[in-house]
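explain this.
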Amino acid sequence: MKLLLAAIVLLLCSCALADAPQPWRAVDLDRPGALEALKLDHPGHFAKVEKILSEAPQRPYASVRGWMRTEFDARDVDTSYLMKTSYPALARITFTLDERQYTKVIRIDAPAKAVPAK
């Protein structure tokens, strides 16, 4: 009887949680049609995102975070140093514009800089 009651309570709780709003997730700009939807829904964000995606690959990767913060007032900028070893190299950037988070894999075109070993 206790097992049946526990199962019913668990079922009711899971149904209640299923109707709850899901936690907000980042907009994946790699998804097909995501940029077009952004252009229609948030034209101001689209202009900033378009400029970020066109200029970030040419910048030294270490300076992208600061550039995005100052130029576009982006918050929570994450330029992961985990790069995909392809040619050209690929890296994921994640940033927030006005409480809306975006993520995109970009190519790194900036030339590498040789640093002598210490």
